[in-house]
Amino acid sequence: MNNHLRGIDFAALATLRLVYRRRSFTVAAEELNLKQSSVSYTIERLRNAFLDPLFVRQGGSIAPTDRCIEIVAAAERILGEAERAALPREFDPATSTASVTISATYLSRSVLMPRVVQELRQEAPGISVELITGFTDARRHLLSGHADLALTPVAIEESGIYGTTILEDPYVCLMDPENPLARGPLTPESFASATHLVIHYGQTWRPLYQDALKERGLTLKVAVSTPDPEDVRFMIPRTDLVAALPSWIARQFEQGLHICPCPVPADTPVNMYWPARLNHSPLQEWLRAKVLRVAQELPDT
């Protein structure tokens, strides 16, 4: 073995990987619950081992060197193999005891997860599930190890993360039955010029129907913006507000309201993502298959 590599362990490689992903010594130290000096010391050891600066200052942040990018790719493979080797060889749902953390949006938590949890309680009572709110945070949750699985409409393209689309839900519109727009079919123009209640989910993500409108040269007239879809049931009655929501969410609030198709074609996807370290985990493979089947078996709205 190269003498420079002596003393380089899995923890050091994991620290390098996290600094690379976060582009920050400070943020990496916070996530590892270490002092920044400890992270700096580890990176300095790796610099000496690999005879490369690994990171260079670029404006107010750091950027990896070309050699660092190559080393991180190798570290991903090494850490992934080690994590897979540590996994149990067999998995029995009925007797397994484990905890799973899932980063999920409102749609997934209110539609998919109740069905998944019902099956888990019957088939795998020893498995506990923690749900955390995830949207644009899903990528960070997976890379940091805060989540084992993520259900999000946001596309994630990242080395070390696998994924697939498991559901596409069309948008529909909700409004008060006395709203004049409820009397006839909506057009893209009448929809855009209506007074809108927009759900932003507390994120910077923009609902996909807005992109479809933009392609037509149309923009929404937003009167109310809120992070919580449940506000629809309180704010739309006896007003001129219109809200566009994925159909599975809208159906939860349609009592006493008028519901109709969104006049611009747009679906919200539910993408399922997981980290490479859990790609071959028997428990996680079983859970992912269950979530996928539940999504495929949802009745048409």
Q: What is the 3D shape? A: globular
Largest sheet: 9 strands, mixed
List low-confidence stretches. none
Q: Using the coordinates above, name the CATH class of the largest domain.
A: Alpha Beta
What is the count of DSSP helices, taking H or I runs of 4+ residues? 11
In the residues, how many domains can be counted?
Answer: 3
CATH topology of the largest domain: D-Maltodextrin-Binding Protein, domain 2
Q: How would you name the CATH homologous superfamily of the largest domain?
A: Periplasmic binding protein-like II
Number of strands: 11
> Which percent range describes the beta-strand content?
15-25%
Map the helices and strands.
Elements lengths: L9 H13 L2 H8 L3 H15 L4 E4 L2 E4 L1 H20 L12 E7 L1 H18 L3 E7 L4 H6 L5 E4 L8 E15 L12 H6 L1 E5 L8 H8 L5 E6 L5 H4 L5 E6 H4 L7 E4 L5 E9 L6 H15 L5
Parallel strand pairs: 3-4, 3-5, 7-8, 7-9
Antiparallel strand pairs: 1-2, 5-11, 6-9, 6-10, 6-11
Helix pairs in contact: 1-2, 1-3, 1-4, 2-3, 5-11
